Amino acid sequence: MKTAYINAAFFTMDQKNQIFNNGLMIIENEMIIYIGSFQNQLVEEAENIVDLKGKWVMPGLVNTHSHIVMTLLRGIGDDMLLKPWLETRIWPLEAQFTTEIAQVSTELGMLEMLKSGTTSFSDMFNPKGIDADAVMEKIGETGIRGAFSYTIFSLGTEKEQQAHLLEAERFAKKYKTSANGRLTTMVAPHSPYACTTEALLESVRIAKENELMIHIHVSETDYEIADIQQRYGHRPVEYLRRLGIFDSPTVMAHGVVLNEEEREILKAYDVRVAHNPISNLKLGSGVADIVRLLDHGIKVGIATDGVASNNNFDMFEEMRTAALLQKGMYKDATKLPAKTTLSLATRVGAEAIGMNSTGSLEQGKQADFITIYPYDKEHLQPLSEAASHLLYAANGRDVCDVYINGQLIVKDRSCLTIDEEKVIYETNRLQAKLKR
Ligand SMILES: CSC[C@H]1O[C@@H](n2cnc3c(O)ncnc32)[C@H](O)[C@@H]1O
Ligand SMILES: [Zn+2]
């Protein structure tokens, strides 16, 4: 069935960055089959017409690195550096997670992501003590597109670590293509510091044998660089390169502390970077040099990280912060201009996590898009500067509708796939049970 979307301004975020004011988009079988100027004949041929009534339409946002299962930990452990934050606050709390907590935490995160315009995300979750299948079931029900990683940590006895790796591989295989192709998996050794060399080598094997991407935290802090250098005689990038991690397509979260030689390696191996500007600021890790990464031709996506270090999943805030930081750091307002930054949060981010079929409004792409109704919003006036407002003035609460695969998931700010009231009630009931 063909559906025509009319009466809107379409921001394609494709290579040409086109804007079709009062344009037309036609969707058939979950795909965009036409995007462009209004054509009466095409509208007449469509079985369905959706009047978008002056809205702005753009591709759904792509969050390239998150920890959805941590959402219940928002606001806990503020104002700490990464190492003590993980070791004294986050990991002891995650150790108390049950499957019920993980499911509610996931639903809360999904609700927030969807309502703020994220249609695709790449997530690493801590599976300790929880039924990962039950979490996947919840995610599948929401309608979102995602790549999930069952995180590999080197904790416990040799036998426990073997069992953990087996389970990570089972999970990666089982969900490689699931929920009608919307959900997929990656292999995720947590980081060079939380995994043994053996676990990293096993990750390389699992990724290769199953043709999966790798998702890993790398070069997040000065401490990590010194620690890995001392333990293995190399900085993290060279250490991982030698182990073969980058022989599979890899998404590296952070990349805050990198030198020129390392950027050359990332480019040579087509390693992609998930840039988490707010988390990096909040944990006192620093500011990644995105300008240099882009100058090297490295694919960079925008990401929030988990909400315990952000403290929200608002990708509008995230991309604005990304742009402002580079301008400030370089004392050069031309760095990371609006269009470039918007493309990192959409098309380029999608490519970075291997989702080439989404991220822009183009013929042949999946129909993942969001709408914003600007007329009653003072901070989105004057209307003529819409392209600027999307980066510099809008926020996640401006998102009106969200479509994934052409399916309406959020309608007029109500999520159709999640019981919002119940999730908020359960969040507070379960969070109160955690020993802090
Ligand atoms: C085991 S899944 C992911 C796991 O990583 C931890 N985490 C969250 N944010 C960060 C970060 O910025 N760097 C390193 N590790 C992080 C947290 O325990 C998550 O559950
Ligand atoms: Zn992270």
TrEMBL record:
It comes from the Bacteria. Its cofactor is Zn(2+). SUPFAM superfamilies: Composite domain of metallo-dependent hydrolases (SSF51338), Metallo-dependent hydrolases (SSF51556). Its EC number is 3.5.4.28, 3.5.4.31. It catalyses: S-adenosyl-L-homocysteine + H2O + H(+) = S-inosyl-L-homocysteine + NH4(+); S-methyl-5'-thioadenosine + H2O + H(+) = S-methyl-5'-thioinosine + NH4(+). Belongs to the metallo-dependent hydrolases superfamily. MTA/SAH deaminase family. Substrate binds at residues 94, 190, 220, 305. Catalyzes the deamination of 5-methylthioadenosine and S-adenosyl-L-homocysteine into 5-methylthioinosine and S-inosyl-L-homocysteine, respectively. Is also able to deaminate adenosine. Keywords: Hydrolase, Metal-binding, Zinc. It is an enzyme of class 3 (hydrolase). Residues 56-408 form the Amidohydrolase-related domain. Signal peptide: none annotated. Pfam families: Amidohydro_1. One of its GO terms (molecular function) is metal ion binding. PANTHER family: AMIDOHYDROLASE-RELATED DOMAIN-CONTAINING PROTEIN, AMINOHYDROLASE SSNA-RELATED. Zn(2+) binds at residues 65, 67, 217, 305. HAMAP family: MTA_SAH_deamin. This is 5-methylthioadenosine/S-adenosylhomocysteine deaminase. The keyword Hydrolase applies. Binds 1 zinc ion per subunit.
